[in-house]
Design a protein that fits this description.
heterodimer; A: 501 residues; mainly alpha; 3 domains; 67% helix; 0% strand; B: 84 residues; Non-ribosomal Peptide Synthetase Peptidyl Carrier Protein, Chain A
Amino acid sequence: MTSPAASAPRAKPAPGTTPAGSAGLLGGFRLIPAFERDPGYVTFACTTAGKLYLLGLFGMGLAIQNGARYAVILSAILGGATFLPQHRRLVLTGGTLLWLVANPFWFDWSLPEHVGKISTLAGGLNLRALYITGLVGVFGFGALVIGWARRHPQSLLCTQPVLTLGIFYAAMLLFASYGAPDGARLAAWLFLVAFGAYFWFFAYALSDQRTRDGDSVALEFGTFHPFWGSTTTPLPKGAAYLRRIEAKDAQELAVSQWKALKLFIWVCVLSFCNLVFTKLIHGAFHIPTFQDAFDRGAAHAPYPVYVCWLALIAAFAENLFVTSVWGHTVIACCRMAGFRALRNTYRPLAARTIAEFWNRYYFYFKELLVEFFFYPTFFRFFKGRTRLRLAAATFAAAGLGNMFFHFIRDVGYVAQLGLWRALMGFRVYAFYCLVLSTGIVISQLRNKAPRRTARWFRAPLFQRLGVVLFYCLLQVFDVTGRSHPISTHLAYLLHLFGIGR
Amino acid sequence: MDAREAIRAFVKDLLASKGETAAFEDAASLLLSGSLQSIDAVEIALFLEQEYAIDFSVVGFDEAQIDSVDAIVSLVEQHGRRIS
């Protein structure tokens, strides 16, 4: 059945513009025109000249923003994805491999600083070569595991990938920390660091093997820290998602590429704003960075309360700029390659609830936690008690999953401090996760409650300010380093309200 | 009201609660397009559990199964039964 006057749900408005259908104060003005909605532009982008034009503009932007080497490699891969659409996924694999060869040390290689504590053998070895061996070992292991999973789609490895990978990871960590002899310990650590970096890529790949159309090992590897970039959080998710969002024809590719170019123009605008903001705040107004203000507080020589507040708010704004610029660049490249991914950050300051902000700020990290922690908890436990299962699933995702993600991301601390001290030092971030989860749960449950008459303090502006205040204050605990105990962070929080010291 | 109509009405209400009041096709993507979010996927899943006794802990949950009215109807036809 199709409704009369059928159309897709309304598209999200572009950033920096007013929503479609609401002219607002700016009378429908768009900072960046909606090229992708103009049939003339779309038709032009379907031609060879149009494709070259878009690739050229995009490449120039990349060169200005990120440097010539970056732009040349990326443009070559994007050209392949544009002109060989039938082999786009293979181009992705090839491009990702090329990118890995060009940047093998993309993840946390803090281990070299602590390697002397791990093994007495380390001093006489070429560590760089050893780390690459670790990387190759992880990919070899991955090929075996994914290959096995393809033949056993109903196995626990595919149905519960994070549980099984997590148990394996924990066993390896215990072995590396306590049980292994010298040489094996070094090998185990090299494997652990590389495996930790690719943990969530493996989780998506194994999860994909449950489906009938799951990708081969080679295609799955193309999504492992793809050439367009990501952190240890896969952007945009895994192979199953890429199959769904891949442009199916020349028109879809053209629309995707125009959107990529628009997003990249927005990146340039935001980068400029960030530059001006940073110069003004820290240069002209001499407001310290949040880290500086916190360190002064920890050293019992805090700045005045109003300076600490300004530093906190400035850090919040800078985080928004940095996350947006980085995420938009990645997604713009992904769209240019013909994958119609949603943005990673989408108008976070428009969020009226804590849960909504979390969804808008770092979308693909939230999606990872939802997929691997929220849904499995929600559909398995406390059935029939909607509020309780919602709360439990949220704590599993924003709390437990969030902690687990950051613990394995920063596993170098275990090498540096030992497992027990690294765990104990993680209390600050654990507290952060607890408060974040509680905030999101309350926000979700309030959203489900029947609406009462709006009062002045519930007006959108005050709701938004409340959300910003919550996340500003939460920054005090958003620390995965192990430099200060939680009491120092709590004391700093109290200082912001003029209490103590 | 048949299953398709009931599902369409539910999705329409869900979209309206997000301020999305434009007409939409039954094949239109709801989640992949960004019109609905994960928390809305939970709402759809709860609706299907309550109205059609679908147990996602048995059939498995994937957002692609509920990404459009057509996909939801197909899921109900495969695994659901009307409760009331």
